[in-house]
Protein 1
Amino acid sequence: MPTSKLQPRRATVLAIALAAALGVAAPLAWAASPPASAEAGIDIAYEQFTLPNGLRVVVHTDRKAPIVAVNLWYHVGSKDEPSGRSGFAHLFEHLMFQASENHDGEYFAPFKQIGVTDQNGTTNTDRTNYFQNVPTTALDTALWMESDRMGHLLGAVDQAALDEQRGVVQNEKRQGENQPYGQAWTRLMKALYPEGHPYSHTVIGSMNDLDAAALEDVHAWFRAWYGPNNAVLVLAGDIDLATAKDKVTKYFGHIPAGPDMAQPQVDVARRAESTREVMEDKVPQPRIYRVWNVAEVGNPDLDRLQLLAQVLGGSRSSRLDARLLHRDQLVDSISAGSYGKQLGSNFMVIANVKQGVDPAKVEAAIDEEIARLLAEGPTAEELERARTMFRAGFTRGIERIGGFGGKADALAECAVYAGDPGCFRESLRIIDTTTAAELQAAGRQWLGKGEHTLVVMPGERTALAEDPAGVPQPWTLPDVDARYATLPVAVDRTQGVPMPTAFPELKFPAVERATLSNGSTVVLARRSGVPVVQLNYQFPAAGYSADAEGRMGTASFAMGMLDEGAAGAGPLAFAERAETLGAQLGAGAALDAGTAWLSALSAKLDASVALFADMLRRPDFDAAELERVRATWIANIAQEKARPQTAALRVLPPLLYGEGHPYAMPFTGSGTEASIAALTRDDLLAFHRASVRPEGATLVVVGDTTLAEIVPLLEKHLGDWRGSGEAPAVAAAIPEVARPDKARVFLIDQPGAVQANIYAGLLVPPTTDSGSVRLDIANGVVGGDFTARLNMNLREDKHWSYGARSGASGALGQRPWLASAPVQIDRTADAMAEIQREIAGFASGKAPPTAAEVERIRAINTLSLPGAYETASSVASTIAGNVMYGRPDDYVARRKAEIEAMTPAQVAEAARTIDADALTWVVVGDLSQIEAPVRALELGEVTVLDADGKPVAR
């Protein structure tokens, strides 16, 4: 769904770090990309051309899957909004997902019939983008739709469409600000930039400006910014240059150019004085934001500052982590990173202060570490580790052709901001060649006086005052440049959206098996193209359903401690070893199993597996580290209680399953403060001996390797691993639970909330049940997709919510099926009534699934499969699920065949599994506003709970 999230340029996402001059280039002649540098080792090859109307097109060929990523960037963002129109760029992004002149209905609708994946749109300060991955045979559909909204939109944008999406955007704004610390970003932008600077307001804008947006503003915005000459289209995947030229010319060539809109001049807004501010919010612990305005994208110093951020606070072995998290133990988390932007970027340090610690002490320590780094510069080892992490992050990132941060994104961003789709190569070169002295100089240049510090303290929340609606400035649009010609119309759009008649066949990777000497099964799926190997070691008795009564959180905590030092190397030394190898590894628990994972560069596979083996076989569980992690863990539980979504998900399981049931614990798996406080080192050692052992475990391997290579490596480092002499743990027996006789409603107070978070849940049969696939399709109709009934009602029709969903997570026992919706606070009871009505009508058969709905959900679940397994992680996840639930290797194909043969009558029968009269409701919101209207609904007995799920006397 559309979103306005500003994506940070973190150290592991180098593909979007730019290192070329800014500016909008003149239309480019056809050109192929130069060869990649030897240092980069891996590249994104591309070719490009420009249509006569100014549309720049970049093509990257990658035949690994029969899909094409379509990624369209418009060079307009919130920086371009005139006074009185804040939030307009993002509002218009939402309008682009509505009808166009030749397509009546939601933009998403045709894509749901052709197997789209990774479809979305985003707005930030500098650009707006739209993207989707489609099967190769559906490329015409995608290009027709994108070109129709580029060239044929305004006739379909009426007052009703504007009012609808205005309401959706305002609920998105409420949803963000309703979170703990959710008002901080607005305060930061106002403090960092002077009034009138293009970055002085948030992307989502003010309520008053959104209210004031008029239809003529929408039309003027479109005419100004949405011409082909202000756009870059990237096609990546199963496509070549000749095909791209033919199809893009056919669908986009006739669209007239818009005016050549000037981009604002670079204005970093460097600040002469340091400033600070303290605000209160309903948060569980203080948080410190320290922010500098720094170099713009395209400035080599931004790449150097990203490296500096990696050394300072961008990794587990960084200086801030070593000092504040490990040595002095002043914080529960701390990070540093750069947020790159066109006119000027932000360098930011964020710290969650440990309970009882004076934030001033944390601020002083941050100052000391920054000063020391700028005075001494990084060590050779720090610099090389940072480089390795960047290279590894780039390598992993370009496994994906589309979506957030994939290859199409990297090419589009470079083309928009630098006029050169390959500008990432210069960024890679800078990363590879920057010296410690250059890094030190960049830090001294940008991280001196002039930062702003915002400290958010626990207290009462005061809603931020909305800026009054600004006085709209008149639009002054330049003339269209005469150099942009148009071609004759090549498509008769009266014939409607072209739909494919054939689709690529699903080709799930073949798997190979071996058995290690330690008793584990190896399941390998080979994936070439990216030199990375992913290992997932699944331990069936290490899920948090096996936690003993009173020991909730043991599995998650123990698995999380595996990489906090192993084989005598403490957590910092262990992290340094991993980062030197460019490896990512860790472990965690889910409901029914625990998993340890490793992502290794192929060239460092042997050493990475050795480190992985140390983590699995010889975790330290050091007593001092246990206390440090325990304190942070308990602080995270407090954070869960402060967030409305996780607050609900903590109390729901005991309500659904009943006290004492193995699943009756927070869905986060984190346990309670009391259970974590009671854990001892002996508990962790006992868990490890009994549950993290090779016998009966499965190691899923996906990536650039073979059995002939990987098995000897695994034997070398893990073959002689044996479980202890103690009896191994066994998976918990999961008893069946009867549903309640009638619906129940539970309320949790969140004073001052501007939204209520509604959850309605009940138990359905296990994942292994023979009817689970039919139930999944039924769920797709009622709430499992953007176009499902719940979302279309509460978001698109009523505009009360940013999104409504439903679904059942996987489980060996009865699954929890949940419908959820964050809604504006004054519509809480109304929304609950609508959810009840939708579920009851659907499940009872009064409003059964239509043939069209079943066909849409069928297409979503089957036609998307060729593109669903683009990444190693998606393949590994499916194989792990097959292992967990005892499925055959060809389960994906069998499930596809079952869905294709499914009838509306079968889906209607499956819908009866959902009983609206047995729902358990949990609603988190301001009870002073919602309690009386909710009680008046008479959905069921109403009980008020505290954050621990205990009844509150009323």
Protein 2
Amino acid sequence: MLPAYAGAVTVNNVSTVTETADGGKIAGKVVDEKGETIPGATVKIVGQSIGAQTSIDGSFSLSVKPGVYTLEFSFVSYQTKRITEVVVKNNEVTTLSVSLKPSKNELKEVVITSSYRKSSVEGVYTRQKNAAGITNGISSEQIAKTPDANLGQSLKRISGLSTFDNKYVIVRGISERYNVATLDGTPLPSTDYSRRNFSFDVIPSEMIESVTVYKTVTPDLPVGFAGGMVQINTRDIPTKNFINFSIGTGFNDQSTGKDLISTKRGKYDYFGFDDGTRKMAGYFAVTQGTVDPANPKPFTDDDIAFSRQFTNNWRLYKYKAQPNQNYTLTFGQSFPLKNADNKIGYIASINYRNTQTITDIVNQRGDFNLGVNDNYPQFDATHPSGYGKVYNFNTTYGGLLNIGFKSKNHSIGLRNTYTRIFSNPLTDLFGYRDDEPNAVFDPAYAPTTERILTEPDFLGLLQNKLQGEHKFGKVKWNWDASRTNINRKRKDMLRREMTNLAQRYGSYFVDYVSKDAVNVFPLSRQTFNLSETDYNWSTSLQRTFGKADYASLVKVGYIGISKKQTNDFVTAYLRAGTDADIGSDFIKKLIIEDAHNNPENFSNDKLVYQVYPFGLSSYSGSSNSHTFYAMVDQKIGPKVRFVGGLRAENFKLGLANDGFSSANKLLNTTDSLIPTFVDKKWEFLPSGNLTYSVNDQLNLRASYSQSIVRPEFNERSLASNYNSELLADVTGNLVVSTKTTSYDIRAEWFPGVGEIISLGAFYKYLDKPLELVQQSTTLYYYNNGKWAKDYGIEAEVRKRLGFINDNLPILDKITVFGNATYIRSRVLGLKFDKLAPVPDRPGFLMLTYKESLQTRPLYGQTPFLLNAGVGYDGDIFGLNIVHNHTGRKFYILTNDLNTNEFEGAYDQTDVQLSANIWKKKGKIRFNVANLFNSVDFYYDNQRSYENIDPNGPELGKKLKSGYSDNFEKDDNVTFSRKVGRTFTVSLNYSF
């Protein structure tokens, strides 16, 4: 959307005309004060015969010789507008987009003089100013001024957003499952096999034109959300023909040139594909034999043959971590047809990036939690009870091909996007286990245990979308149809635990083998495959009624979504056979990669691979959503705008092996389980957004809306998957949708082009919020609470310093910017009580719940976010310094307040120096990421709480006097990671 003042600059969605020799272009869009495009508007250069009419999307393009011009924009029933001092340079495009106001009874010419500043950041704020609801965003130019390699790293720079692991977004303190991602307006499926979220690191930053985060709802948005909708916009058809190439490299001060440990690399790893190296086995089957001590059964000949067909991927190799490398090639063309109003064009881009990193970690969770500073005071921050490194080899690449046709009344576009990421982390962790009977708990002695985990992860995202826009008289028809596929494979994930009974430093660790199969350790292998294909289609009709100050735009439409997903997960436990002698030298001195080379070592008296029925799990499902909506964009006088309407949703999810059918199979009774909470077949969701424009620069906004977030397949399935980040299994539950009611207010002041000062507040009520809860150290499950409340304040500033002194032109090239968010939340949870008969329905059982004794924050909530920076954008040199602060974050939710885990406050400072070279056709950038080498850490505050009732925990817990949930000196650091500083240099050249 575009602002109601002239001289605004926006991202170029423009048509083109044939270039003149030795010349440049003026291009942009013409819209009304609501941000709706105006097809057929006249654009001409005053005093000359050069002119054009805008296409159906309001775009225009003029080819002229270098110089300074005055442009005039006009359309029937709108005030004519002139823009002066438009500077055109040779072989450059001057982007200039304006909005026209409806005329009343007389024609009125308005001449506005504005200085030209070519920068796509203005486009973000112009769309924000004219958006129907409350939005924030970031432009490709802003991203380019940071070291961010992918969208996951960039999102935390947007007001009100934080990220987890630089992948998953949290909006306004609401966890990732309540936020959705769209690519060019089409919803993206979840990329995780155990949680509802989208991994934003799969989107390379080079593919992005801009990102808009919708924080309030209008009926025509493609999907519901509680926190925010992150809309990723890829690059559109160009204004002028171009070829752009960039190349970059860099190093990390704690990784590059160091030994990087990994399983054997495949010959296609640098291309993101597996060559068969990580083939775990030729086939999978549930074994007939079992090493269960309570009921051991000898393994059959088929079981032994099954064990012997497993590959040997256990051996580890040392590679040198190579410097980072990245390449991007983008080119685009547009062609005018015989009719000057008709144009076709395309843009194509390919990008590649490879990084190899070593992260230092401390892990004092689970088995390595010795009660630091209590039972074992000899362990501290310098000598932790669990520590190690994560070695990661990462290849990411992607491409897009967008093709379009535009005329005065019609446009058709085909958008194609593909991205692929191969991530191969290996975690090597050392620690002291307090269940070792003869262990010495002293840092002077080597750790008792070494754990090795590998996660070869191949993730591909492909989206194809066909869309059209047509104008028939006063009616505009929009339609689109798309297919999106997510394919994720984790191949041969090794889980290995080794022991050092002598507790001597050096190569004294040997593999530990047991006859128990209750955990993935000491030895197991896993693989899973997740595939989801989504089909999305929509159509809408809109028409404007009335004139001038009381015009109404009425829009009706339909949105359809069909999803199909399959997910299979295999765990094979490597155990001592039923007849094996645990005390033998073979078992006690086992080195698994050596033993695996001899097929005779797989037998009942040595080793076996065992697959339990629950270790060979899968589910498949489909869901269908049909949404009908009607909305009005109504002007109420010259200053007031109301956008609102009603959304009607019909949703159905079908799942093989869902929570209800699985639970019924487990019940040893003739009774059947029925759900306690039931989703309605239809949901009717109203929304309203009110904007009062005090003047052309100041908006006052208020918003009300209802939305609903549906469960995903994995949240409804009882199939259990192991999550390496949580070091535990994750399973679904008998869960239902969450309905959210939201209230927002905001004041937005746009003092100049590309500038903003805003302040707003929000409140959200979530009915039956769904959260991931830790049931034990080895199991997490989903559970609906009773209610949650989330509220906060947001502020944003972006301002050039030229206003300080007009006699210092350098100040106008310096911009200060920042945003801050203060958030609070409360949740009333529900705990399972018992199975109870259903009144008036004999033969049926229902789960009953009881309310938690205390309220607490929402899972994922961060109380304070801050981004701040300063930039200098000179003719030759540029400098940007950006700082991000994220307050402590609620990370692991348990059923007891004092065992909840938090991510500590985190600060990161990034710096970029840039220079324009080769007559501004080239740019060189030097980046420093994480300048002060900040450490990311997690903690629990068990020592901060005490029983409300000193005689027992029945009434719950309370904070001790003088304590809080923030990190304090008595709190225990459970996990930390140190990623080091990254230095990169890149060269960009445009032909």
Protein 3
Amino acid sequence: MLENGYHWRNREIREHVAVIDGTVKPDFILANGTYLNTYTKQWLKGNIWILNDRIVYVGDKFPENQSVKIIDCEDSYLVPGYMEPHAHPFQLYNPVSLAKYAADFGTTTLINDNLVWNFLLDKKKAVTLLRAFNKLPVSMFWWARFDSQTALQNEEEFFNTEEVLSWLEHSSVVQGGELTAWPSLLQGDDRLLYWMQEAKRMGKPVEGHLPGASEKTLTKMKLLGVSADHESITGEEVIRRLRLGYQVGLRYSSIRPDLPKLLEEIMDAGIDTFDNMMMTTDGATPAFYEKGLMNICIEIAIEQGVPLPDAYRMASHNVAQHYGMTEHLGTIAPGRLANINILDAKENPHPVSVLAKGKWIKIDQEAQQRIVNFEWEKYNLAPLEVDWELSMSDLQFSVPIGLEMMNNVIIKPYPIETDVTLDVIPNTNNDAFLLLIDRNGKWRINTAIKGFTNNLGAMVSSYSTTGDFVCIGKSKPDMLLAWQRVKELGGGIVLAHQGEIIFELPLRLGGSMFDGDMSDLIGKEKELKNLLKEFGYPFADPIYTILFLSATHLPYIRVTQQGILDVKKREVLFPAIMR
């Protein structure tokens, strides 16, 4: 078994070699299948021997003079388990529920964002948690964040050299970034540059976050050490990054489902090599994953005319190569983890059977219960215990500048003209109260938001960028009612209207994550979206709206722990109020 997710012990390696010598039997053989050799981009006929979690032989032979379990794969096609190179495993779901669900559709490796662990857990407990994840059939790896992508009151507490380097040094951490603080880097932040160079010294790439970047900016970022970027929204931007030597992630997410357009545009431009491209769902919200993750991306690539070997490589071999993992993942070859998807046709990337670390996740379309309930409480991930009260005195609004939604996540400032001293804002306009309040009750920011709802009493959410409480609504009494229910649930998202609770989604893992199956969560998220739409939410993804209210990597104005922030000027317009 891989130790720390990455290395076999010498004794195990000797045992693997003994299989070839015929003194140890493999556990089973996938026989007579047609597999994709991602090195030569050929479909080859062969037998795949597996011992424990490792592929020990691929070729036309069978063991001599041994009775071994044979699984006949005649008329089946075998490809490497799919890899998601850029996952945010905290979008209401938790890392285990996402991994379990993804594996059922063939995505057996996820490279995950560590941002939420910085806020929810101390480093020692987080390391223990990563070790527990390595025991699961899925393969989980992580990034080391360099910044909070918001304006914290105590950024140094979470992102300092000791903390950042200790994350980078962990064997399960394979990347630095994503680099949402890149403007600071360009302005001379040498500590950030040092962290990036340490990541590169360890052989770990640095992921950028460079939406709309010019050739000049991309060149500077390459010189500073950025390895890859996933923010292209046109084929021209993809090509620009490829020509400058970036590894490029093509995005298909709930707020940026760009993959079909990107592939069409780069192929129309004559690009016919895909070795430096990957695909990512970039932390989509739950319902977007109803039919899977990377299997959907591969399907789109095939539909757009990407050659079959390249389409599969973009979600396996290319990812492994970028992260220096091809000796363990992303290919069907001796020595690799036994992560294999079995297909009924080359052109159909939706697997009928899924093997992960030598264990069956799915057999003939029937899911196997390989990931049991995870004991989160061992790692201090429990329901929120809130020992303070929200009161009407906290709902005093006088700031003259509010946040006006342009789309799901882009927000501009606007002058508040409606009377926010009232207990209920009339439904004749799109203004609503907006309160961001510290999860420990120490500070608050009171303003207004336009475009989220025209008549909802209240929505209160403990799900946010930093785990602080977001309260939006037309009615102060309904805000207090929804707040009280969130507190009783130990965290969650609650809607209240005209004195009644009309929706609740418990998020009992630190107030940020759902402790349950993805299928149940998908149903709840759909219900939430439908309700918010009925109450005037005009866009597609309210979950991202809530999450990114504090996200300073987006224009133009944000509500953060420090106060209402002008993102471009990095200037606090109205500071947080201490309670």
